Amino acid sequence: MMAGEKILRASLSTASSTAVLALAIVGMQAASMASAEAAVVNRIDVRGNSRVEDATIRSFSQVQTGTNLSEADQDAVLQRLFSTGLFSDVRVSQSGGTLIIDVDENAIVNQVLFQGNSKLKDEQLNQAVRTSPSGAYSRAQVDADVAAIREAYTNIGRSDAVVNAQVQQIGQGRVNVIYNIQEGDRTKIAQISFVGNNAFGDSRLKQVMALRESGLLSFIQRNDIYSEERLRMDEEALRKFYYNRGFADFRIISSTAQLDPNENTYFVTITVDEGERYTFGNIVVDSTIPGVDTESLYSELETQTGEVYSAEDVEESLVNLTDRLAGSGFAFAQVTPRGNRDFASRTIGVDYVIDQGPRAYVERLEIRGNTKTRDYVIRREFDVSEGDAFNQVLVQRAKQRLENLGYFETVNVSTAPGNEPDRVIVIVDVVEKATGELSLGGGYTTGGDSEGPVAEIGVTERNFLGRGQFIKVSAGFGTDSRNYSLSFTEPYFLGQRLAVGFDLYRSETTAGDYDTLRTGGDVRVAAPITENITAQVAYNYKEEEFGDNVGLDLFNPVTGERFRDAAGNAIRSTCGDPNPALYRQTFNGSVLDANGAAATAPNFTNSPIINQAICDSPYSTSSISYALVYNTLDNAEQPRDGLFLQAGQEYAGLGGDAEFVKTTGKASAFTLLNEEYDVIGSVSGTAGHVAALGDDLRVFDNFFKGKDLVRGFESKGIGPRQNGVSIGGTQYAGAQAEATFPLPAVSRDLGFRGAVFADAGTLWGSDFGGAPNVVGTDAALRASIGVGLIWDSPFGPLRVNYAEPLAKESYDETEAFSFGFSSRF
Question: What are the boundaries of the signal sequence (predicted)?
């Protein structure tokens, strides 16, 4: 053992001096680390601060005296102090038991100023930046604000805007932050083009997209502002378009947007692969759940063998089947569509397989992103609520309903696991958009009771106070007309899908054969029976006054002198005059006095029937109306497919002066005659009948028809007349056929469409058929053909028609050109 020890000592003694030194250094470092880890903080010394209190900094550090502090702990102190945004630099060190925190304070922002901006106001830019007065200045935050301002300008089509930040020292540790902006020119979309499309041309596909090529009206419509998000949304719109028209293999290979910096314009190119077009093959409903009657479920399907394949029809079938199964007690039934593609026959068969889904329940609905819209407005669109069986199909239908409201830019619905394995959290993320609207209208009307320039101003809010309510106040003014209206609708009355509302109105017209003043209103209720069928009920009340029955002095049309009686008193034409000849006997617009001489009376007409009705006014009408509506139109503003059917009655006699029942009906069908050229065809039919319930029908309770039934005639241009004055009819019927199409060689972005049409109809029947000089009580057919120009302008719809009557009566009043204009923005 002793010999071994000598050998070990010898080897150590012969080791190099370098190794010995290294071992000594390592030992000293280890001792130092052990000392640092074991160091106890007895005191915290804060240095460099002038505005922030020592106690505040100590609190931010979260270090307690009497605790050990490692190097990792010191790093954490640095992070916490930097995260406050109060300091531009922080240094942390430890000397014995003293922790030293040395800080350089950030300046305080005195003002945030914007210079050079006009397209975006200061208020808008303040919402984009996070640097704020009285806050701590941070260079990193200012840089982020510069990027945010650029993004704000990109969103309004000015992606070449230049933004620089300037910091102005004003003393005492305070600064002004100034954002200097050069807004630049609007970035436009010069061209949108497609590659690989054969079934549909570029012009048709552009209509599907929200992005538009820059044109004459782009500065108003603002739809030529490029953004990558909008392009992604348009890609999805194109997919839906193709999938719903049989192209189940459609895919977008690429979509690019190249900016020409010299012209400041984008060139958008979308490359697609359309694939083959399919029709529906064999359709089968199958179930693995005992008790499900599959044969009865076929009536719920929107897909039919032989029809063009449509993904939308498959989705609607899923919703219908899920609803039917849930209503039959199969709450957890899960419907899965399975496609059977036959490439040879180009058909896709669909098997709707019904399985028992997992027993999952909705733990809660979590609504996010809504700053204006109340939570319950979003929740009520869901057919499932907390505690109900979770059903993905019903959740997706709720998403579609929310999108249809028009309150949100985007709606995203996702799910997350709940607190239990069988619980699901449904998360709804929305991005709200403006729902208020100031509308200004102007134009020129021809024919009818009011002719000449017209203007309208209105304020509409579709999500009033975030409650989902609709309200509109409007006023209209014309050369010889005035009208005012107020409308309000609560779409979910008492938490049910009952749309309850009211309307108030007042209208004055001093044109046509006689003056008219109407004041009234209604209270209405609409209840959905199915997704497409709605029942409507309303109570209506109105008061009407016609002409002027206050009495008119009669004048000699030759001398201009008043007619006077033997006592020298002026002879007046009044409705209460004992001599009815003064106002009932008429000739060429003049009234006969007691001696048979002509005297002008501008508030009476050539029709004794109308004159008597004028003298009997004012009238009041108290009625209840009800209707049933069937609506499958794909678009309310410009339908390309679907049906609209409406039938209803109005019963008057609940008080008031009128006692009648009116029955009316209307049916319209739309279809796309040519997909490539976007030619839309439509046919419609309408009819009505009114009958007295008590005494004779009042003349003003009749129907008055003209160009609204057969174009080419004036507003009251057809039907029974007396001495050339319309007295209305008790029955009408009509039909219209029309085709509209984009104008060739005119950009569709301008919103112009042409139209060709053919109309036929008649207005007949009268309770005054035995009166002198009454004509037109028979059902003589009127017909016309014509062309029209439609402009979907940024201010509203405009239409000009030229119609040539093919069948008319000698006493009808025709009008070849008709012009109507109303505008909103």
Answer: 1-38
